Amino acid sequence: MPLKLLIVDDDERERIVMRYLLEQIGDIQIVGEAVHGLEALLLCQEKKVDLVFLDIAMPEMGGLETAVKLQELKRPPIFAFITARPDMAVKAFEMGALDYIVKPVEQSRIRKTIARAKLQIAHRDVIEEMVAQQLKSRIDFILERYKDSELYSGKLFIREKGKISLVNQVDIVYCESRGKKVLICTDKQDYLSNFTLNALEKRLDDRLFFRAHQAFIVNVEYIREVVNLGEGSYIMHLENCQKDIILSRAKAKLLRDKIGMY
């Protein structure tokens, strides 16, 4: 994937020169130009910029202030200063700059900066993947540790998007298979979990829950009515829920036995 670059300089002539030099280099994409720091911040958020070439002396918001703001973004880009001032290099590197290039700019220097940026981004991506895997492993460990106590505690531990939610089983209205995931619905909130329906059935309190269909588990406490459609087919209506649950004759018999419905 090409490196996404942003040029930030209030001098149009300098931006033209910089764009020309960058266009001679492969595997990059110039996603925009900005004339001051505020515009640069907006473009970085909108375009998901990887590397910013940043002038120091600019109106409204200078390069140093912009660099501070860039690092406060949710996914901060790498930044390198390109300036006519040779006296700010120490300050720039203390702020975390990848490079400090004094004008006039040479293309060979730009190539080296881009190569270093690619290496740094690759390293960052590896670290992020390692952290994500460690987080997943930790969550898996917690779920494995507590799965035997879920029935006793009356809670279900649901992993989703890097977090664990503890849900009271009595609050669950129904669970529905959605491909490789299961939607767990309460009367207040829905959770898209990584359970299979078979695994979830083993974790839920079988005194409360009934496998009504290959795609559904329902909480019997929420059953409002069971409608006979004839020819051995039934529809189950639940409290606080618009979902119609289909029951076969065999499942309807099991439900009658379970809750004493005759």
Summarize the structure.
38% of the residues lie in helices and 32% in strands. The chain contains eight helices and 15 strands. α2 (37-47) packs parallel to α3 (63-70).
Task: Explain how this protein is built.
With 262 residues, the chain is an alpha/beta fold. It folds into 2 domains: 3-128, Rossmann fold (3-Layer(aba) Sandwich); 154-259, OB fold (Dihydrolipoamide Acetyltransferase, E2P), CATH 2.40.50. The chain has 8 helices and 15 strands. It has helices at residues 12-23, 37-47, 63-70, 89-94, 107-146, 150-153, 197-203, 249-259, and strands at 3-8, 28-34, 51-54, 78-83, 100-102, 155-160, 163-168, 172-178, 181-186, 190-193, 209-213, 216-219, 223-230, 233-238, 244-248. The strands form 4 sheets. A 5-stranded parallel β-sheet has the order 2-1-3-4-5, with helices on both faces. Strands 10-9-8-12-11 form a 5-stranded antiparallel β-sheet. The radius of gyration is 29 Å and the shape is elongated.
